[in-house]
Write a structure and sequence with these properties.
The chain contains 11 helices and 12 strands. The protein has helices at 2-23, 58-71, 84-93, 107-111, 139-146, 173-182, 197-205, 216-219, 237-241, 263-272, 278-283, and strands at residues 47-53, 75-80, 98-101, 114-129, 136-137, 164-168, 192-194, 210-215, 225-227, 229-230, 248-256, 287-288. The strands form 2 sheets. Strands 1, 2, 3, 4, 6, 7, 8, 9, 11 and 12 form a 10-stranded mixed β-sheet that branches. It has a two-stranded parallel sheet with strand order 5-10. β6, α6 and β7 (192-194) form a beta-alpha-beta unit. It starts with a helix and ends with a strand.
């Protein structure tokens, strides 16, 4: 009887040992790096990202969106060129994931729950018709022209002719930046107020006596207009970055403070503000700020 019990106990212990050994095969095997071969790969990024605002940021946002969508085929990035004021409002009311502003946010906009992140710097070029003999103006002369103190090109070294001032509409980031720097806010006397950067360039190109202002990134390569030097300094990427060109402003991504973006929108935001985007921003004519 004792021998029978001993045999049964031995068999039971053997079965338990075999069961324990078999359970080890349920765990995923580790590779040479220590990772497990059973780990799932992250899901591909998908969804849509809506951006809305500054017309001056068209080239920058366009090239960033194109590259981002090429790298993330499941994501669609849209851009609605409505002007900085409308873009800030779109970010505030949630109708866009990211607002686009070509001016810094005002204190009241920040207090209202918005955050501005500078993605690049842009020079505001002062432009005249390609046939103009004027090459350089000081900031003071520019202010005097736009406020009506100087009305004829002969007063600043050009051929006689009544100066026609072309500017942007109220709420434009380009206008806000220009007027802030030249100290002409609410004092400009404009012959035309246009709703896009392209419209200003076309108007100046078509009028030999016109003067206007437009984003550096928008005027490069145009042969129907001429960008003046300001105080002897040309509007270039280098002079904007080193601060020697006086009339410049930031390109800003606007988001709601404390509110998470969608995964796709956050990924686009992170890409646009990273040093990986610097060459793309440069190729769009703006000056990147990421280190």
């Amino acid at each position: 009887m004792k021998k029978t019990l001993a045999l049964l106990l031995t068999l039971a212990l053997s079965m338990a040992a075999l069961t324990g050994c078999g359970s080890k095969t349920d765990a995923p095997a580790a590779d040479s790096t220590g990772s497990t071969t059973g780990t799932e790969t992250p899901a591909a990024l998908s969804g849509s990202v809506s951006t809305n605002g500054s017309t001056s940021m068209e080239k920058v946002i366009g090239i960033l969106s194109e590259q981002f969508m090429a790298d993330n085929s499941g994501v669609s990035v849209t851009y609605d060129p409505t002007g900085s004021g409308a873009g800030i409002e779109a970010a505030s009311n949630g109708s866009a994931d990211i607002g686009l502003s070509s001016r810094a946010l005002k204190d009241e906009e920040i207090a209202g729950g918005l955050t501005g992140t500078t993605v690049a710097l842009d020079g505001i070029a002062v432009i005249v018709n390609a046939g103009s003999k004027v090459e350089d103006l000081s900031v003071e002369q520019i202010a005097q022209i736009f406020t009506g103190e100087i009305t004829d090109w002969s007063e600043v070294g050009g051929e006689a002719g009544t100066i026609s001032c072309i500017g942007r509409e109220a709420g434009s980031g380009t206008r806000d930046g220009f007027e802030s720097i030249t100290n002409t806010r609410d004092a400009c006397k404009l012959d035309q107020e246009l709703t896009s950067t392209g419209g200003v360039i076309e108007a100046v190109a078509g009028n030999p006596n016109a003067i206007g202002y437009a984003s550096l990134s928008a005027v490069e390569g145009k042969d129907t207009i001429k960008a003046l030097t300001v105080g002897g300094v040309a509007c270039t990427e280098e002079t904007v970055l080193d601060g020697s060109y006086a009339i410049q402003r930031p390109f800003v991504l606007v988001t709601r403070t404390g509110e998470a973006l969608s995964p796709a929108a956050q990924a686009f935001f992170d890409f646009a503000t990273s040093s990986a985007a610097n060459d793309l921003i440069k190729s769009a004519g703006a000056v990147p700020v990421a280190q």
